[in-house]
Amino acid sequence: FYIHAFNQPAAVIHQVRQVKRFFTGSPTYIMSDGGQQFDGLCETEGCTFVLCPPANDRWHPWPFMRRLYDAALALNTEFVIMLEPDNTLHGPITRPPTDDVGGLYVPDRTYGMEE
């Protein structure tokens, strides 16, 4: 799980704990975009924290894509689920995804299952 955060510590703490609750053993990587430091949270909860300089990535997507790439390398998992503090988790995934990144259809992508 990749949490792209700036502030809202209560929401981020809740997210990290919900990931641990519903996805036991899944790694969590928090990147703060020049805002709140979550290193203490990660020491307690066993996640990875990186503080990056602020970037207005709405206008220039390179910092956003680079940070997502860095998170994917650090997580070293087959899939990465990106969360922001305004997302909530209510339970485990109950059905396999039908689309790839950003909801874009990728031909011949089966997620290891038969179609």
Brief digest:
The chain is an alpha/beta fold and 115 residues long.
Description:
The chain has 115 residues and is of the alpha/beta class. It is 30% helix and 14% strand. It contains 3 helices and 4 strands; from the N terminus they run βαβαβαβ. It has helices at residues 9-22, 39-45, 62-75, and strands at 2-5, 29-33, 48-52, 82-83. A 4-stranded parallel beta sheet has the order 3-2-1-4. α2 (39-45) links the parallel β2 and β3 (48-52). The longest helix has 14 residues, at 9-22. It is globular. 16% of the residues are buried. The mean pLDDT is 88.
Strand and helix layout:
Layout: E1 2-5, H1 9-22, E2 29-33, H2 39-45, E3 48-52, H3 62-75, E4 82-83
Parallel strand pairs: 1-2, 1-4, 2-3
Primary descriptors:
alpha/beta, 115 residues, globular, single chain
How confident is the prediction overall: mean pLDDT? 88
Report how far apart the termini are. 26 Å
N-to-C SSE series? EHEHEHE
Question: How much β-strand is present in the residues?
Answer: 5-15%
Strand order of the largest sheet: 3-2-1-4
> Into which percent range does the helicity of residues fall?
25-40%
Q: Say how many strands there are.
A: 4
Number of helical segments with 4 or more residues: 3
**Low-confidence runs of at least 5 consecutive residues:** none
Shape from CA axes?
Answer: globular
Helix and strand content put the structural class at alpha/beta
Task: Give the oligomeric state of the chains in this entry, treating copies of one chain as homo and distinct chains as hetero.
Answer: single chain
Task: Report the sheet with the most strands, covering strand number, pairing sense and barrel closure.
Answer: 4 strands, parallel
Overall radius of gyration: 15 Å
